[in-house]
Protein backbone atom coordinates (compact mmCIF):
# COMPACT_ATOMS: atom_id res chain seq x y z
CA UNK A 1 0.00 0.00 0.00
CA UNK A 2 1.36 3.45 -0.96
CA UNK A 3 2.13 6.09 1.65
CA UNK A 4 -0.97 8.16 2.48
CA UNK A 5 -0.67 11.67 1.07
CA UNK A 6 -3.23 14.45 1.42
CA UNK A 7 -3.15 18.08 0.37
CA UNK A 8 -4.81 21.39 1.06
CA UNK A 9 -5.03 23.54 -2.06
CA UNK A 10 -6.21 27.12 -1.40
CA UNK A 11 -6.13 30.01 -3.87
CA UNK A 12 -4.22 33.06 -2.52
CA UNK A 13 -6.97 35.47 -3.58
CA UNK A 14 -8.10 36.43 -0.08
CA UNK A 15 -7.64 35.60 3.62
CA UNK A 16 -8.06 31.95 4.60
CA UNK A 17 -11.71 31.13 5.25
CA UNK A 18 -12.66 29.20 8.41
CA UNK A 19 -14.19 26.43 6.27
CA UNK A 20 -10.84 26.09 4.51
CA UNK A 21 -9.07 25.82 7.87
CA UNK A 22 -11.33 22.91 8.85
CA UNK A 23 -10.68 21.21 5.48
CA UNK A 24 -6.93 21.62 6.02
CA UNK A 25 -7.28 20.27 9.58
CA UNK A 26 -9.16 17.14 8.46
CA UNK A 27 -6.58 16.49 5.72
CA UNK A 28 -3.68 17.01 8.12
CA UNK A 29 -5.17 14.81 10.86
CA UNK A 30 -6.02 12.05 8.39
CA UNK A 31 -2.47 11.97 6.99
CA UNK A 32 -0.86 12.11 10.45
CA UNK A 33 -3.18 9.40 11.79
CA UNK A 34 -1.99 7.21 8.90
CA UNK A 35 1.67 8.27 9.35
CA UNK A 36 1.53 9.86 5.91
CA UNK A 37 2.31 13.23 4.35
CA UNK A 38 0.31 16.45 4.25
CA UNK A 39 1.12 18.96 1.52
CA UNK A 40 0.17 22.59 0.97
CA UNK A 41 -0.49 23.51 -2.66
CA UNK A 42 -0.95 27.18 -3.50
CA UNK A 43 -3.25 27.35 -6.53
CA UNK A 44 -2.12 30.73 -7.85
CA UNK A 45 -3.01 30.45 -11.54
CA UNK A 46 -5.43 33.42 -11.25
CA UNK A 47 -2.63 35.94 -11.72
CA UNK A 48 -4.80 39.05 -11.38
CA UNK A 49 -6.25 38.15 -7.98
CA UNK A 50 -3.43 36.04 -6.47
CA UNK A 51 -1.24 37.94 -4.00
CA UNK A 52 1.80 37.02 -1.92
CA UNK A 53 0.24 38.65 1.16
CA UNK A 54 -2.61 36.13 1.01
CA UNK A 55 -0.22 33.25 0.43
CA UNK A 56 1.76 34.28 3.52
CA UNK A 57 -1.45 34.74 5.51
CA UNK A 58 -2.59 31.21 4.57
CA UNK A 59 0.73 29.71 5.70
CA UNK A 60 0.73 31.73 8.96
CA UNK A 61 -2.92 30.87 9.69
CA UNK A 62 -2.27 27.14 9.35
CA UNK A 63 0.85 27.42 11.48
CA UNK A 64 -1.07 29.39 14.16
CA UNK A 65 -3.68 26.66 14.51
CA UNK A 66 -1.00 23.94 14.70
CA UNK A 67 -0.96 22.60 11.12
CA UNK A 68 2.51 22.21 9.66
CA UNK A 69 2.74 21.04 6.04
CA UNK A 70 5.42 18.62 4.90
CA UNK A 71 8.16 19.78 2.53
CA UNK A 72 8.07 23.16 0.84
CA UNK A 73 4.73 24.53 -0.33
CA UNK A 74 3.86 23.49 -3.87
CA UNK A 75 3.23 26.49 -6.19
CA UNK A 76 0.81 25.55 -8.96
CA UNK A 77 1.79 28.29 -11.42
CA UNK A 78 5.30 26.84 -11.64
CA UNK A 79 3.87 23.74 -13.27
CA UNK A 80 1.63 25.24 -15.96
CA UNK A 81 3.69 23.82 -18.85
CA UNK A 82 3.09 20.29 -17.54
CA UNK A 83 -0.66 20.99 -17.38
CA UNK A 84 -0.58 22.14 -21.02
CA UNK A 85 1.33 19.00 -22.04
CA UNK A 86 -1.41 16.82 -20.54
CA UNK A 87 -4.08 18.86 -22.37
CA UNK A 88 -2.23 18.28 -25.67
CA UNK A 89 -1.96 14.58 -24.90
CA UNK A 90 -5.73 14.41 -24.28
CA UNK A 91 -6.23 16.11 -27.66
CA UNK A 92 -3.99 13.57 -29.41
CA UNK A 93 -5.76 10.64 -27.77
CA UNK A 94 -9.16 11.97 -28.85
CA UNK A 95 -10.37 12.76 -25.31
CA UNK A 96 -10.49 16.52 -25.95
CA UNK A 97 -11.24 18.90 -28.80
CA UNK A 98 -10.88 22.55 -29.77
CA UNK A 99 -14.04 24.63 -29.54
CA UNK A 100 -14.30 27.79 -31.67
CA UNK A 101 -17.67 29.01 -30.37
CA UNK A 102 -17.76 32.76 -29.87
CA UNK A 103 -18.73 34.35 -26.58
CA UNK A 104 -22.00 35.46 -28.19
CA UNK A 105 -22.85 31.88 -29.16
CA UNK A 106 -22.22 30.64 -25.61
CA UNK A 107 -24.24 33.55 -24.18
CA UNK A 108 -27.15 32.66 -26.47
CA UNK A 109 -27.04 29.01 -25.35
CA UNK A 110 -27.06 30.09 -21.70
CA UNK A 111 -30.07 32.38 -22.23
CA UNK A 112 -32.02 29.58 -23.96
CA UNK A 113 -31.31 27.21 -21.06
CA UNK A 114 -32.34 29.91 -18.55
CA UNK A 115 -35.68 30.46 -20.34
CA UNK A 116 -36.40 26.73 -20.20
CA UNK A 117 -35.42 26.64 -16.52
CA UNK A 118 -32.59 24.19 -17.25
CA UNK A 119 -28.93 24.27 -16.14
CA UNK A 120 -26.61 25.33 -18.96
CA UNK A 121 -24.82 22.49 -20.72
CA UNK A 122 -22.66 23.39 -23.74
CA UNK A 123 -24.27 21.97 -26.91
CA UNK A 124 -21.05 20.20 -28.02
CA UNK A 125 -21.13 21.93 -31.45
CA UNK A 126 -17.41 21.41 -32.09
CA UNK A 127 -17.21 17.91 -30.63
CA UNK A 128 -17.52 16.55 -34.21
CA UNK A 129 -16.14 19.27 -36.45
CA UNK A 130 -16.03 17.40 -39.80
CA UNK A 131 -18.56 19.65 -41.51
CA UNK A 132 -17.56 22.86 -39.74
CA UNK A 133 -15.29 25.55 -41.12
CA UNK A 134 -12.70 26.75 -38.63
CA UNK A 135 -13.10 30.53 -38.32
CA UNK A 136 -10.08 32.74 -38.87
CA UNK A 137 -8.55 34.88 -36.12
CA UNK A 138 -10.43 33.01 -33.38
CA UNK A 139 -8.54 31.52 -30.45
CA UNK A 140 -10.28 28.27 -29.44
CA UNK A 141 -10.78 26.84 -25.96
CA UNK A 142 -9.97 23.17 -25.40
CA UNK A 143 -12.83 21.07 -24.06
CA UNK A 144 -12.77 17.60 -22.53
CA UNK A 145 -15.04 15.03 -24.20
CA UNK A 146 -17.29 14.00 -21.35
CA UNK A 147 -19.18 10.72 -21.52
CA UNK A 148 -22.68 11.28 -22.89
CA UNK A 149 -24.45 8.13 -21.73
CA UNK A 150 -24.54 5.79 -18.78
CA UNK A 151 -23.90 6.55 -15.12
CA UNK A 152 -20.84 7.45 -13.11
CA UNK A 153 -20.15 6.17 -9.60
CA UNK A 154 -17.85 7.51 -6.90
CA UNK A 155 -17.24 5.57 -3.70
CA UNK A 156 -17.11 8.52 -1.36
CA UNK A 157 -15.40 7.88 2.00
CA UNK A 158 -17.89 10.18 3.78
CA UNK A 159 -21.03 10.27 1.64
CA UNK A 160 -21.02 6.61 0.57
CA UNK A 161 -21.74 5.63 -3.05
CA UNK A 162 -22.67 8.66 -5.16
CA UNK A 163 -24.15 7.91 -8.58
CA UNK A 164 -25.01 10.45 -11.29
CA UNK A 165 -25.98 10.37 -14.97
CA UNK A 166 -23.13 11.27 -17.33
CA UNK A 167 -25.55 13.35 -19.41
CA UNK A 168 -25.52 16.17 -16.83
CA UNK A 169 -21.75 16.69 -17.15
CA UNK A 170 -20.92 19.08 -19.98
CA UNK A 171 -17.80 19.04 -22.14
CA UNK A 172 -15.88 21.23 -19.71
CA UNK A 173 -13.02 23.54 -20.63
CA UNK A 174 -9.50 22.39 -19.78
CA UNK A 175 -7.58 25.16 -21.63
CA UNK A 176 -8.85 28.72 -21.98
CA UNK A 177 -8.45 30.83 -25.13
CA UNK A 178 -5.11 32.15 -23.88
CA UNK A 179 -3.97 28.51 -23.44
CA UNK A 180 -3.99 28.78 -19.65
CA UNK A 181 -5.19 25.59 -17.90
CA UNK A 182 -8.40 25.55 -15.86
CA UNK A 183 -8.88 24.30 -12.31
CA UNK A 184 -10.32 20.96 -13.50
CA UNK A 185 -7.15 20.09 -15.40
CA UNK A 186 -4.50 21.62 -13.13
CA UNK A 187 -5.95 20.02 -10.00
CA UNK A 188 -5.83 16.52 -11.50
CA UNK A 189 -2.33 16.89 -12.96
CA UNK A 190 -0.94 18.25 -9.70
CA UNK A 191 -2.62 15.57 -7.58
CA UNK A 192 -1.13 12.93 -9.90
CA UNK A 193 2.37 14.45 -9.84
CA UNK A 194 2.24 14.82 -6.04
CA UNK A 195 1.10 11.20 -5.58
CA UNK A 196 -1.95 12.30 -3.62
CA UNK A 197 -3.79 9.24 -2.32
CA UNK A 198 -6.80 10.93 -0.67
CA UNK A 199 -8.63 14.10 -1.73
CA UNK A 200 -10.63 15.43 1.23
CA UNK A 201 -12.59 18.56 0.39
CA UNK A 202 -15.99 20.29 0.71
CA UNK A 203 -19.02 18.59 -0.76
CA UNK A 204 -19.51 21.56 -3.11
CA UNK A 205 -16.71 19.88 -5.12
CA UNK A 206 -18.72 16.72 -5.84
CA UNK A 207 -19.51 17.66 -9.45
CA UNK A 208 -15.83 18.56 -9.98
CA UNK A 209 -14.87 15.08 -8.81
CA UNK A 210 -17.05 13.49 -11.51
CA UNK A 211 -15.37 15.68 -14.15
CA UNK A 212 -11.88 15.03 -12.81
CA UNK A 213 -12.46 11.29 -12.59
CA UNK A 214 -12.83 11.21 -16.39
CA UNK A 215 -9.42 12.87 -16.84
CA UNK A 216 -7.82 10.22 -14.60
CA UNK A 217 -9.45 7.49 -16.65
CA UNK A 218 -8.45 9.07 -19.97
CA UNK A 219 -4.81 9.38 -18.85
CA UNK A 220 -4.87 5.88 -17.35
CA UNK A 221 -3.68 7.28 -14.03
CA UNK A 222 -4.38 5.80 -10.62
CA UNK A 223 -7.20 7.74 -9.03
CA UNK A 224 -7.06 8.95 -5.42
CA UNK A 225 -9.87 8.16 -3.01
CA UNK A 226 -12.34 10.97 -2.46
CA UNK A 227 -14.07 12.23 0.68
CA UNK A 228 -16.52 15.15 0.51
CA UNK A 229 -17.17 16.80 3.85
CA UNK A 230 -20.36 18.84 4.43
CA UNK A 231 -20.00 22.61 4.39
CA UNK A 232 -20.10 24.94 7.37
CA UNK A 233 -23.20 27.12 7.58
CA UNK A 234 -23.52 30.49 9.30
CA UNK A 235 -25.62 30.90 12.44
CA UNK A 236 -28.52 31.96 10.19
CA UNK A 237 -28.28 28.62 8.35
CA UNK A 238 -26.89 29.84 5.02
CA UNK A 239 -23.61 28.71 3.47
CA UNK A 240 -20.74 30.47 5.25
CA UNK A 241 -18.93 32.93 3.00
CA UNK A 242 -16.01 35.33 3.28
CA UNK A 243 -18.52 38.17 3.69
CA UNK A 244 -19.75 36.72 6.99
CA UNK A 245 -18.48 38.07 10.29
CA UNK A 246 -15.84 35.87 11.93
CA UNK A 247 -15.20 33.94 8.72
CA UNK A 248 -11.37 34.09 8.73
CA UNK A 249 -8.71 33.00 11.21
CA UNK A 250 -7.71 36.64 11.76
CA UNK A 251 -11.24 37.42 12.95
CA UNK A 252 -10.82 34.87 15.75
CA UNK A 253 -7.29 35.98 16.63
CA UNK A 254 -8.59 39.56 17.01
CA UNK A 255 -11.32 38.33 19.36
CA UNK A 256 -8.67 36.71 21.55
CA UNK A 257 -9.48 33.09 20.76
CA UNK A 258 -6.69 30.61 21.63
CA UNK A 259 -5.48 28.41 18.77
CA UNK A 260 -5.99 25.15 20.71
CA UNK A 261 -9.60 26.10 21.44
CA UNK A 262 -10.41 26.96 17.82
CA UNK A 263 -8.72 23.80 16.56
CA UNK A 264 -10.72 21.72 19.06
CA UNK A 265 -13.92 23.47 17.94
CA UNK A 266 -13.25 22.90 14.23
CA UNK A 267 -12.37 19.26 14.89
CA UNK A 268 -15.77 18.72 16.52
CA UNK A 269 -17.59 20.71 13.83
CA UNK A 270 -18.87 17.79 11.78
CA UNK A 271 -16.76 15.05 13.41
CA UNK A 272 -17.27 13.12 16.61
CA UNK A 273 -15.68 10.39 18.68
CA UNK A 274 -18.11 8.87 21.19
CA UNK A 275 -19.15 11.64 23.63
CA UNK A 276 -15.70 13.18 23.94
CA UNK A 277 -15.61 16.98 23.65
CA UNK A 278 -12.07 18.09 24.58
CA UNK A 279 -9.13 16.77 22.53
CA UNK A 280 -5.43 17.40 22.95
CA UNK A 281 -3.41 17.62 19.73
CA UNK A 282 -2.06 14.10 20.22
CA UNK A 283 -5.56 12.73 20.90
CA UNK A 284 -6.86 14.45 17.75
CA UNK A 285 -4.22 12.72 15.61
CA UNK A 286 -4.67 9.35 17.32
CA UNK A 287 -8.48 9.26 17.13
CA UNK A 288 -9.32 11.04 13.86
CA UNK A 289 -10.89 9.01 11.07
CA UNK A 290 -13.32 9.71 8.25
CA UNK A 291 -15.95 7.37 9.70
CA UNK A 292 -16.64 9.96 12.38
CA UNK A 293 -17.45 12.70 9.85
CA UNK A 294 -21.19 13.42 9.57
CA UNK A 295 -23.11 13.84 6.31
CA UNK A 296 -25.05 16.99 7.23
CA UNK A 297 -23.82 20.60 7.21
CA UNK A 298 -22.53 22.01 10.50
CA UNK A 299 -23.62 25.36 11.89
CA UNK A 300 -21.04 27.80 13.22
CA UNK A 301 -21.79 28.51 16.87
CA UNK A 302 -19.94 31.47 18.40
CA UNK A 303 -21.34 30.71 21.87
CA UNK A 304 -19.74 27.26 21.73
CA UNK A 305 -16.42 28.72 20.51
CA UNK A 306 -16.35 31.16 23.44
CA UNK A 307 -17.30 28.39 25.87
CA UNK A 308 -14.45 26.18 24.63
CA UNK A 309 -12.07 29.13 24.75
CA UNK A 310 -13.07 29.81 28.34
CA UNK A 311 -12.36 26.16 29.18
CA UNK A 312 -8.86 26.36 27.68
CA UNK A 313 -8.12 29.69 29.41
CA UNK A 314 -9.15 28.26 32.79
CA UNK A 315 -7.02 25.11 32.41
CA UNK A 316 -3.87 26.51 30.84
CA UNK A 317 -0.69 27.14 32.86
CA UNK A 318 -0.57 30.82 33.96
CA UNK A 319 2.90 31.44 32.51
CA UNK A 320 1.84 29.95 29.17
CA UNK A 321 -1.33 32.06 29.23
CA UNK A 322 0.74 35.18 29.87
CA UNK A 323 2.89 34.34 26.83
CA UNK A 324 -0.24 34.06 24.68
CA UNK A 325 -1.52 37.36 26.09
CA UNK A 326 1.77 39.10 25.25
CA UNK A 327 1.66 37.81 21.66
CA UNK A 328 -1.98 38.90 21.37
CA UNK A 329 -1.18 42.37 22.69
CA UNK A 330 1.86 42.73 20.43
CA UNK A 331 -0.18 41.75 17.35
CA UNK A 332 -2.76 44.43 18.08
CA UNK A 333 -0.35 47.10 19.36
CA UNK A 334 -1.39 46.85 22.99
CA UNK A 335 1.74 47.15 25.08
CA UNK A 336 2.69 45.32 28.27
CA UNK A 337 5.90 46.69 29.81
CA UNK A 338 8.20 44.40 31.78
CA UNK A 339 7.49 45.57 35.37
CA UNK A 340 3.75 45.23 34.74
CA UNK A 341 4.36 41.83 33.19
CA UNK A 342 5.60 40.45 36.52
CA UNK A 343 2.42 41.68 38.25
CA UNK A 344 0.28 40.19 35.48
CA UNK A 345 1.85 36.72 35.79
CA UNK A 346 1.11 36.52 39.52
CA UNK A 347 -2.41 37.92 38.89
CA UNK A 348 -3.24 35.62 35.97
CA UNK A 349 -4.92 33.05 38.22
CA UNK A 350 -7.80 35.39 39.09
CA UNK A 351 -7.72 37.59 35.94
CA UNK A 352 -8.66 34.55 33.86
CA UNK A 353 -11.55 33.53 36.14
CA UNK A 354 -14.29 35.47 34.36
CA UNK A 355 -12.55 35.64 30.98
CA UNK A 356 -13.81 34.01 27.80
CA UNK A 357 -11.08 35.53 25.59
CA UNK A 358 -7.58 37.00 25.76
CA UNK A 359 -9.22 40.38 25.14
CA UNK A 360 -11.26 39.87 28.33
CA UNK A 361 -8.05 39.21 30.30
CA UNK A 362 -6.48 42.33 28.78
CA UNK A 363 -9.51 44.43 29.78
CA UNK A 364 -9.62 42.88 33.29
CA UNK A 365 -5.96 43.83 33.70
CA UNK A 366 -6.37 47.50 32.75
CA UNK A 367 -6.10 48.60 36.38
CA UNK A 368 -2.64 46.98 36.49
CA UNK A 369 -1.48 48.25 33.09
CA UNK A 370 -2.69 51.85 33.41
CA UNK A 371 -0.64 54.25 35.52
CA UNK A 372 -3.47 56.79 35.55
CA UNK A 373 -7.02 55.73 36.27
CA UNK A 374 -9.95 57.48 34.69
CA UNK A 375 -13.11 57.02 36.73
CA UNK A 376 -16.34 57.37 34.75
CA UNK A 377 -18.81 60.09 35.89
CA UNK A 378 -21.31 57.33 36.73
CA UNK A 379 -18.84 55.54 39.05
CA UNK A 380 -17.59 58.83 40.48
CA UNK A 381 -21.13 59.53 41.78
CA UNK A 382 -20.86 56.38 43.91
CA UNK A 383 -17.91 57.88 45.79
CA UNK A 384 -20.13 59.90 48.12
CA UNK A 385 -19.06 61.26 51.52
CA UNK A 386 -19.65 58.00 53.45
CA UNK A 387 -17.62 56.11 50.82
CA UNK A 388 -14.78 58.65 51.00
CA UNK A 389 -14.70 58.25 54.81
CA UNK A 390 -14.48 54.45 54.39
CA UNK A 391 -11.55 54.88 51.97
CA UNK A 392 -9.75 57.22 54.39
CA UNK A 393 -10.18 54.77 57.27
CA UNK A 394 -9.02 51.87 55.09
CA UNK A 395 -5.92 53.83 53.99
CA UNK A 396 -5.07 54.73 57.58
CA UNK A 397 -5.11 51.08 58.69
CA UNK A 398 -3.56 49.72 55.48
CA UNK A 399 -0.50 51.97 55.80
CA UNK A 400 0.11 50.67 59.34
CA UNK A 401 -0.16 46.99 58.29
CA UNK A 402 3.31 45.45 57.83
CA UNK A 403 2.27 42.11 56.25
CA UNK A 404 -0.39 42.41 53.55
CA UNK A 405 -2.31 39.15 53.19
CA UNK A 406 -5.90 38.09 52.65
CA UNK A 407 -6.22 37.53 56.42
CA UNK A 408 -4.94 41.00 57.34
CA UNK A 409 -7.17 42.60 54.68
CA UNK A 410 -10.25 40.68 55.92
CA UNK A 411 -9.56 41.99 59.40
CA UNK A 412 -9.44 45.62 58.17
CA UNK A 413 -12.54 45.28 55.96
CA UNK A 414 -14.63 43.52 58.62
CA UNK A 415 -13.68 46.24 61.08
CA UNK A 416 -14.84 48.90 58.60
CA UNK A 417 -18.14 47.08 58.01
CA UNK A 418 -18.83 47.19 61.75
CA UNK A 419 -17.64 50.77 62.23
CA UNK A 420 -19.61 52.24 59.33
CA UNK A 421 -22.63 49.97 59.82
CA UNK A 422 -22.52 48.77 56.21
CA UNK A 423 -21.96 45.48 54.34
CA UNK A 424 -19.16 43.97 52.25
CA UNK A 425 -20.32 45.80 49.12
CA UNK A 426 -20.38 49.09 51.04
CA UNK A 427 -16.62 48.76 51.62
CA UNK A 428 -15.61 46.74 48.55
CA UNK A 429 -17.29 48.93 45.91
CA UNK A 430 -15.56 52.26 46.78
CA UNK A 431 -12.25 50.40 47.14
CA UNK A 432 -12.67 48.80 43.71
CA UNK A 433 -13.52 52.16 42.09
CA UNK A 434 -10.55 53.86 43.74
CA UNK A 435 -8.09 51.13 42.82
CA UNK A 436 -9.32 50.12 39.33
CA UNK A 437 -11.39 53.06 38.09
CA UNK A 438 -14.52 50.91 37.83
CA UNK A 439 -17.08 49.27 40.09
CA UNK A 440 -16.75 46.16 37.92
CA UNK A 441 -13.74 43.87 37.93
CA UNK A 442 -11.90 41.20 39.92
CA UNK A 443 -12.49 40.48 43.61
CA UNK A 444 -11.33 43.23 45.96
CA UNK A 445 -8.81 41.00 47.79
CA UNK A 446 -7.28 39.93 44.46
CA UNK A 447 -7.01 43.57 43.35
CA UNK A 448 -5.25 44.76 46.52
CA UNK A 449 -2.91 41.75 46.68
CA UNK A 450 -1.94 42.17 43.02
CA UNK A 451 -0.90 45.79 43.41
CA UNK A 452 2.32 46.96 45.04
CA UNK A 453 1.67 48.48 48.49
CA UNK A 454 3.01 51.87 47.42
CA UNK A 455 0.83 51.81 44.31
CA UNK A 456 -2.27 51.01 46.40
CA UNK A 457 -1.50 53.89 48.79
CA UNK A 458 -0.87 56.30 45.88
CA UNK A 459 -4.23 55.42 44.23
CA UNK A 460 -6.18 55.77 47.48
CA UNK A 461 -4.64 59.17 48.16
CA UNK A 462 -5.70 60.46 44.73
CA UNK A 463 -9.40 59.98 45.44
Strand order of the largest sheet: 1-2-3
Overall, the morphology is elongated
Round the mean pLDDT to the nearest integer and report it. 92
Largest sheet: 3 strands, parallel
Number of strands: 12
Structural class: mainly alpha
- Count of helices? 20
Uncertain residue ranges: none
Distance between the termini: 76 Å
**Rg over C-alpha atoms, rounded to the nearest angstrom:** 31 Å
Helix content: 40-55%
- Percent of sequence in beta strands: 5-15%
List the helices and strands and how they pair.
Layout: E1 5-8, H1 18-33, E2 37-42, H2 52-65, E3 74-75, H3 80-92, E4 96-99, H4 103-116, E5 141-144, E6 151-156, E7 160-165, E8 173-175, H5 183-193, E9 198-202, H6 206-219, E10 225-229, E11 232-233, H7 249-255, H8 259-268, H9 281-287, E12 298-299, H10 302-315, H11 318-331, H12 338-351, H13 358-364, H14 366-369, H15 377-380, H16 385-400, H17 406-419, H18 424-436, H19 444-450, H20 453-462
Parallel strand pairs: 1-2, 2-3, 9-10, 11-12
Antiparallel strand pairs: 4-5, 5-8, 6-7
Helix pairs in contact: 1-9, 3-5, 5-6, 8-10, 11-12, 11-13, 16-17, 16-18, 16-20, 17-18
What does this structure look like?
- It is a single chain.
- The protein is mostly helical and 463 residues long.
- Helices cover 48% and strands 11% of the residues.
- It contains 20 helices and twelve strands.
- The protein has helices spanning 18-33, 52-65, 80-92, 103-116, 183-193, 206-219, 249-255, 259-268, 281-287, 302-315, 318-331, 338-351, 358-364, 366-369, 377-380, 385-400, 406-419, 424-436, 444-450, 453-462; strands at residues 5-8, 37-42, 74-75, 96-99, 141-144, 151-156, 160-165, 173-175, 198-202, 225-229, 232-233, 298-299.
- The chain has a three-stranded parallel β-sheet, with helices on one face. It has a three-stranded antiparallel β-sheet with strand order 4-5-8. The chain has a two-stranded antiparallel sheet with strand order 6-7.
- Strand 2, helix 2 (52-65) and strand 3 (74-75) form a beta-alpha-beta unit.
- Helix 16 packs antiparallel against helix 20 (453-462).
- The longest helix is centred in the N-terminal third of the chain and has 16 residues, at 18-33.
- The chain is elongated and about 105 Å long.
- The termini are far apart.
- The model has no long low-confidence stretch (mean pLDDT 92).
